[in-house]
Amino acid sequence: MHKALVAVVAAITVALGSAPAAVADPTDYCTEIEGVDNGTACQIQLTDPGYLVDISVPSDFPDMQAVTQFVAQARDEFLDVAKSPAPRLAPYSLDISAATYNSVVPPRGQVSVVLRVFQNIGAPRPQASFKSFVWDQAYRELITFETLWKPGVDPLPVVFPAVQSALQTQTGQPVPIAPAAGLDPANYQDFAITNDGVIFFFSQGGLLPEADGATQVLVPRSVIAPLLA
Questions:
Q1: Residue 2: inside a domain, yes or no?
Q2: Domain of 30: which CATH number?
């Protein structure tokens, strides 16, 4: 009996040891912020006599928590204002859309999602801004402006002239930018990495005067390759 009991216990132990561990379902970040996932995008649409909300962001970005946290905060801050009884000539509006960029340049690739935020809360024109999220496919983490570059490198003495030159080419005229703004890292926090280089996105009233609106500039990889991490 003793030997039989040992055999049974051993068999159970082996069976339990070989059973696959339960895997928790991934968090549905879209549902958490009251969005609807249509399979490719997380969407939020709200209609009210006083305001309109139209949000669509990719639902497959590797760090969806970071994306949905930003979206939820932007929506909630907008609604705090939009639900006020302040008189208005037209409904307030919030529109968030997204563009995706990819880079497959060795030794590792990146995927970038750039959110374009248009918000009108009674101003003569919508306020335009950007928010980017860049994922390092090799290191499995978000890339920031600080980690985009090699340690100890100050990239802006190279990046700023390239940005200013590109803006002059876009507009066909000189684009005066104060050095204090052109060399301020705060103005370069939103970017996307592509095979051709790094696209910097400048929100309205950031690098350029507010009247110039929001803009974007590609800095060629050939210009900044020695600086990139």
A1: no
A2: 3.30.565.40
Q: How many domains does the chain have?
A: 2
Q: What range defines the domain where residue 119 resides?
A: 25-143
Same-domain pairing of 94 and 139: yes
Per-residue pLDDT of 81-135, as tens digits, reads 999 999 999 999 999 999 999 999 988 899 999 999 999 998 888 899 999 999 9
Specify the pLDDT at position 26: 56
Phi and psi (nearest 5°) for 85?
-80, 10
The dihedral sign for the CA sequence 201, 110, 155, 217: negative
Burial (CB count <10 Å: 0-12, 13-18, 19+), residue 41: middle
User: Are 79 and 102 in a shared domain?
Assistant: yes
Report yes or no: 214 and 203 within 8 Å, Cβ to Cβ.
Answer: yes
d(CA 200, CA 130): 10
Please, where are the H alpha helices in 84-198?
156-171, 179-182
Choose the final residue of a domain: 85, 115, 143: 143
Residue finishing a domain among 143, 174, 208: 143
Q: 182 is written with which tokens?
A: 């052109």
Q: How far apart are the first and last CA of the chain?
A: 67
CA atoms within 13 A on the CB side of 131: 14
- Tell me the sheet residues that pair with 93: 52, 120
| 216: β partners | 201
pTM: 0.87
User: Is residue 12 classed as helix, strand or coil in its secondary structure?
Assistant: helix
